[in-house]
Specification:
Oligomer: heterodimer
Distance between the termini of chain B: 30 Å
Strand content of chain A: over 45%
Radius of gyration of chain B: 13 Å
Number of strands of chain B: 11
Order of helices and strands of chain B: EEEEEEEEEEE
Low-confidence stretches of chain B: none
Mean pLDDT of chain B: 91
Largest sheet of chain A: 6 strands, mixed
Structural class of chain A: mainly beta
Mean pLDDT of chain A: 92
Shape of chain B: globular
Number of helices of chain B: 0
Helix content of chain B: under 10%
Shape of chain A: globular
Low-confidence stretches of chain A: none
Number of strands of chain A: 11
Number of helices of chain A: 0
Order of helices and strands of chain A: EEEEEEEEEEE
Structural class of chain B: mainly beta
Chain lengths: 110, 116
């Protein structure tokens, strides 16, 4: 099975600060998805990366997939309270299986 | 609204009760999923339906019984649950059984289940 390790497990930052969340796999990532989950709710799709070295941005959130396609990072610039929640990475393998990471809980203090 | 609707949002049930969770999607997706999310654990895939046929059952206890009457609706029937079954149950759908696609899975808001 494929395991996705996220770090840190939790993060508390002051509003306006930048932060980075990592997602690491021991196997090649064939499609890396980032989701955000507000506490007690469903997951909202953020971005999907497929190619090594790929980088995508949406508003103040940037996601990157490394060249080896085994690690992805999610970077938030000038964090706001609206960024608070749980961030999950997910990835598929060469079959139909899809795995989720352990999640990173983000708190942004106004 | 993501296009996947789950009801109820919250459910408290005794261990001898029978209840059902409902999921509905009008995205034209052909695959639907039940996930369990417990505190500090990765999302656990429970069941997968593709074109109304169950294609995956990940060693889920028989007290959980899924039903997919058509491609838009998915149910999870609950019977004689245990307190450790308390969790957030998430429904998801995707265009096809393959995970590949621009947005992967579309999730509902979940049902917070508490077993007392």
């Amino acid at each position: 099975s494929q395991e996705l390790e996220q770090s840190p497990q939790s993060l508390i930052v002051q509003e306006g600060k930048n932060l980075t969340i990592n997602c690491t796999s021991s196997k090649t990532l064939y499609g890396l998805y980032w989701y955000k989950q507000k506490y007690g709710e469903g997951l909202i799709f953020l971005m999907m990366l497929q190619k090594g070295g790929e980088e995508k941005s949406h508003e103040k959130i940037t996601a990157k997939l490394d060249e080896k396609k085994q690690q992805s990072s999610l970077h938030i610039t000038a964090s706001q309270p609206s960024h608070a929640g749980i961030y999950l990475c997910g990835a598929g393998n060469t079959g139909n299986q899809f795995y989720f990471g352990t999640g990173t809980s983000l708190t942004v203090i106004p | 609204e993501t296009g996947v609707t789950q009801t109820p949002r919250h459910l408290v049930m005794g261990m001898t009760n029978k209840k059902s969770l409902k999921c509905e999607q009008h995205l034209g997706h052909n695959a639907m999923y039940w996930y369990k999310q417990s505190a500090k654990k990765p999302l656990e895939l429970m069941f997968v339906y593709s074109l109304e046929e169950r294609v995956e059952n990940n060693s889920v206890p028989s007290r959980f019984s899924p039903e997919c009457p058509n491609s838009s609706h998915l149910f999870l029937h609950l019977h004689t649950l245990q307190p450790e079954d308390s969790a957030l149950y998430l429904c998801a759908s995707s265009q096809s059984r393959s995970w590949q696609g621009s947005s992967g899975y579309t999730f509902g808001s979940g049902t917070r289940l508490t077993v007392v």
